[in-house]
Automatic annotation (TrEMBL):
This is FAD-binding domain-containing protein. Pfam families: FAD_binding_3 (PF01494). Keywords: FAD, Flavoprotein, Monooxygenase, Oxidoreductase. Gene3D superfamilies: FAD/NAD(P)-binding domain. InterPro entries: FAD-bd, FAD-dep_Monooxygenase_BioMet, FAD/NAD-bd_sf. It comes from the Eukaryota. One of its GO terms (molecular function) is monooxygenase activity. Belongs to the paxM FAD-dependent monooxygenase family.
Amino acid sequence: MIAKSLITVAIIGGGPGGLATAIALSKLPFVHVRLYEQNPEPREAGAGISLSTNAWKILDLLQASDGVKGGSKANTHQRNGYTGKILNVQEQPENSGADARGSIRARRTRLQSALLARVPAEIIEYGKRVVSLDNLEEGGVRVKFKDETEVVVDLVVGADGIRSIVRRILFPDHQLHFTGNTAWRVLVPKSSLAHIPDITQTTAWWWGETGHAYVSDVDDETETADPHFEITIRSYHEPEIAGTTVPWGIPASNDKVASRVLKFDQRVRDAVGVVPEGQWREFAGYAGPRLEHITGWDKVVLIGDASHPLQGAFGSGATFAMEDGWILARALERTRSSASPLPRALKIFDEIRSPYYMRMYAHLDEGREKMQKQRKSESHTLDELLKARIDNLLGGNKDFIYKNDIQKVWNDYIATLPDEDDVTDSN
Ligand SMILES: Cc1cc2nc3c(=O)[nH]c(=O)nc-3n(C[C@H](O)[C@H](O)[C@H](O)COP(=O)(O)OP(=O)(O)OC[C@H]3O[C@@H](n4cnc5c(N)ncnc54)[C@H](O)[C@@H]3O)c2cc1C
C-alpha cells in the first residue's frame, strides 16, 4: 500500500539514464519509484565508453564513481587510415586540472555495474516491456506491459533509449530514420594485438573517406593481468536492410566487418583480423527531429537518448542521461510543497535540459556546415578532407559538455529564481 502523499514514479528503461534516475529518486523520501526494464536481466551491449570530467561530477553525486575504472593514454593520434600518416596528436595529461581522474575509456559493463550497485534491488523489475501509456483524466498515467500487467503512476520517466516508445506515444508525429552510420564494436585481449605495430600504443582514430577505425584501451592495467582493447569500425553510408537494421548490438560476421576496411592500412586490417568469429556487435545509427520540449502531459518526462537525437555525436550520451536523472530529482525535491508539484518540476527540468541539448545541436550544425563547405570545394586532397574531419571532431570549445558541472548548473539555475517561496508555491 503506497501512502497517498507519495509521488509514484515509473522509470521505463534500465540503461545509464534509467539507473541514474532510480538512484537519485530512491533517495527522496516522498517518492515511490519502480524501474521497468524489458530485458530479462541486466544486459549491456557495446564495448567501451568515454568518461570525462562531466561524468565524474555526476557519478560522484550518485555515489557511483568508485568502481568505474578504465584505460587512458597520454596521447590520442589522428591518422590517415590508408597510409597511417599521423595527422594530429592530441596530448592528454594524465590528470586534468578539472578532475584528477581525467578522461578514461572504460568497459560499458563497469559503468553499468557501478550504477546497479547503487540502485535498491527491490525497485527494479526485469522482463517488463512497456507497450502503451494512457493519459488518465482523473490523474496519473496507466502503463501497460507486454505481459498484460499494468500500473498507474503519477509520473512516467521515459529512459527507454533512442527508439523510445514513451516518446512515440507522447509525440506520435516524431519519426526516426536510419542515418546510414553504422558502428561495429568489439573488445579483444590486448595481448592478441601485440604483434601489430602501432595499434595498442595510443588511442587512435584511423580516418578513411567513408568510415574510420577507432582503437582504445578500456582497462586499468594495474587492475588486471589480461587487459582488453576496443576496436570500433564505423561506416558512414550503409544501406538500410529491412528487418535486420536495428540500433543495438546484433552480431555481425567477420567478413562483413573486414569488407569495410579493405582499403585501410595493413595494421588496421590485421587488427580486425584477430577478432574471433561471432564477437563483433553492430550498432546502426538512428536519428529523428529535435524536440523543443522533452516533457508532456504534465506527467511524462524523457531523459537520455529518448530525449534527443544526438546519436553518440559527442561520445558523452551516457553522462547526459545520468545528468538528466539527477536534475529531475532536484526539480521534484524543489517543488514538493508546490500546489502542483509535477507540472512545476517538469517545467524546471525542461528549462534546464532543453536549452542544453539545443546548444549541442547548434554545435553540431556549425561543424556540419563547415564540412559541407569543405566537400563543395573542388581542390581538396584526401589529407585535407581528413584534416577537416579531424578539426570537426576536435575543434570548437566543448568545455560546456566535457567539463559540465551539473551541481553548479543546478545552483546557478535556482539562483536565477526570484524567491524560493515563488518556486514551491506557485506554478
Ligand atoms: C556506437 C556507439 C558508441 C557510443 N559511445 C559512447 C561513449 O563513448 N560515451 C558515452 O557516454 N556514450 C556513448 N554512446 C551513447 C550511449 O550509449 C547512450 O547515449 C546511452 O546508452 C544512453 O543511455 P539511456 O539510458 O538514455 O538509453 P539506453 O542505454 O539505450 O537504455 C535504454 C534502456 O531501455 C530499455 N527499453 C527500451 N524500450 C523499452 C520498453 N518498451 N520497455 C522497457 N524497457 C525498454 C532498453 O532495453 C535499455 O536497457 C555511444 C552510442 C553508440 C551507439
